[in-house]
């Protein structure tokens, strides 16, 4: 794609700006990231050699509170991608009314090529490099693609070593024993499930007669498939980076999950073994999964999966974006023409950062909540903001994506304007 990811992401802001009454100062500020840091991280590899990795942290906006966002380990990580992800976090946190701004970090690497010890040295090295840029009241890290609880534990530990004080609030998504929250591991999936359950009945899509395809059977896609399956929805296709499986009758998600974790990958399911006996299925590619004739499509992998090149092939009637940025703005237009409804990432996948907020609150108060408390509070927030976004979409006759940006923008605009606007300064009287 010739256009940068950030240029494409910014188009959503432009569309929403037409419907909000925020000051010109505020809208101008939101077009630029507040601060971007690019670092080189030296790592001693197991064979004794030294390798330098490229890392980033972008704080897009912190008007509503400290920056908040995950750290991604992936070969395609670039400053443009991290900046776009930080931009999405800004709107996501505002949309869910969390007292945070938006940030994101990443390191360019294929984590599967590193040993655990090398990954630990790299994670600690990243914190060494960005320690002055982050903090529990400045910018708070979390997991993202290919980072997990263990990586968050190393990061929190390294930051505490540097500061010479235990600082659990600098990282969320930590192991429970290091101040993590109940429910954080499955929070993105749980939140997406609450949004889908609030939306699907509006279209009379009741579980038993609703077919769903999920692209991405990882940290988020797999638990979401499980929740949907438990609720009685027919999950007919799932995939990972290697490929996918499809069964018109519906897949046996718990056994597939078990199989994938035992044998690392859905590819292992292409066998003639037990899972194949539980339910007959066809092997499909990721591209075929996206084009399946299902009611609901859930992209839960990476960005730029549905683009101008393949949007015309989509047959699902409803798309829930569980990944960040899986649909480009060019694809948005094609999907709208085909009357396919898209429920946007900044709403659908906001369960992760919402429970991250709960974790940060628990770290600060020292009082820890039960799983039930976490999930009740998560449900309340996800459903309330989904309904408000729905009403905004109806009021202005706009897409759910534009409505979500309008909702977030109103809160961001108010916060930015509270610091003073051009009108305020031009007015000569004191108040
Ligand atoms: N990486 C997740 C996201 O994109 C979670 C961020 C967080 O918990 O801060 O929303």
TrEMBL record:
Annotated catalytic residues: 104 (proton donor)
Annotated binding of substrate, by residue: 68, 92, 356
Domain Glutamate/phenylalanine/leucine/valine/L-tryptophan dehydrogenase C-terminal: 181-420
Annotated site, Important for catalysis, chain positions: 144
Binding site for NAD(+): 188
Xref: SMART domains: ELFV_dehydrog
Stored InterPro entries: Aminoacid_DH-like_N_sf, Glu/Leu/Phe/Val/Trp_DH, Glu/Leu/Phe/Val/Trp_DH_C, Glu/Leu/Phe/Val/Trp_DH_dimer, Glu/Leu/Phe/Val_DH_AS, Glu_DH, NAD(P)-bd_dom_sf, NAD_bind_Glu_DH
The keyword NAD is assigned to this record: yes
GO terms, biological process: L-glutamate catabolic process
PROSITE patterns: GLFV_DEHYDROGENASE (PS00074)
Alphabetized GO MF terms: glutamate dehydrogenase (NAD+) activity; nucleotide binding
The keyword NAD is assigned to this record: yes
Keywords: NAD, Nucleotide-binding, Oxidoreductase
Family label: Belongs to the Glu/Leu/Phe/Val dehydrogenases family.
Signal peptide: none
Organism: Gomphosphaeria aponina SAG 52.96 = DSM 107014
Protein name according to UniProt: Glutamate dehydrogenase
